[in-house]
Fold this sequence. Notes:
The protein has helices spanning 12-19, 24-29, 36-44, 89-101, 113-123, and strands at 2-7, 49-55, 58-69, 74-83, 106-109. By secondary structure, it is of the alpha+beta class.
Amino acid sequence: xxxxxxxxxxxxxxxxxxxxxxxxxxxxxxxxxxxxxxxxxxxxxxxxxxxxxxxxxxxxxxxxxxxxxxxxxxxxxxxxxxxxxxxxxxxxxxxxxxxxxxxxxxxxxxxxxxxxxxxxxxxxxxxxxxxxxxxx
Length: 136
C-alpha cells in the first residue's frame, strides 16, 4: 500500500538528494514563481509542507503544499505534485485526512487543462477560476 508521509522541515535536507529529481517536470511546466532551490528553502523554513509517497519503502512521489488562510476558508494549496500513481484513492484519502487535521476546508491547485481534468476526475477538484498573468 502507498503511504503518505510528512517530512518535517528539520529533515528536508536529509531527503532532498533522494527526491529532487522528481521535481524536474513540475519546474519545466510550472510558473517561474520560484526555483527548485527556493522551494527547498520554503520547505526548510516551514512555509510549505513536503509530503513523500512511498510504496514498499521506495519513494515514488512528492507533493508540496502551502496553507493559506482566507476570512471564510483555510485552503491547502498544492504547489507541486510529482511522480506516478499519486492521484489514487488511498493516497488522496491520506492527504485529505491530513488537510482536515490542519483545519482546512478546501484543497486547491493551479493546473494546466490536462492536469485540471485529472484533478477533477481523481480528486473531485472542480475548476473555479482561470488564472491569467502578465510579467511587468
